[in-house]
Specification:
Distance between the termini: 85 Å
Mean pLDDT: 94
Number of helices: 1
Largest sheet: none
Radius of gyration: 25 Å
Number of strands: 0
Shape: rod-shaped
Length: about 60
């Protein structure tokens, strides 16, 4: 029975570890989405400023 108990404990440990990894992945995906949105906003702002600069230069 010791082997069975050891395997059961290892399975439980792996389940907890897998759940922790899932939470970390979800958090990383949310952060990636946030950073991507911010980058897009900044790119749009740069584009707008470049257009305004060209209009003022003419």
């Amino acid at each position: 029975m010791d082997d069975l108990d050891g395997i059961s404990r290892e399975i439980e440990t792996l389940d907890r570890y897998a759940e922790r990894l899932r939470r970390q992945i979800e958090a990383a995906q949310r952060e990636l989405a946030r950073v991507t949105r911010k980058k897009q906003q900044l790119l749009a702002e740069v584009s707008k400023l470049k257009k305004a600069r060209k209009v003022m230069a003419v």
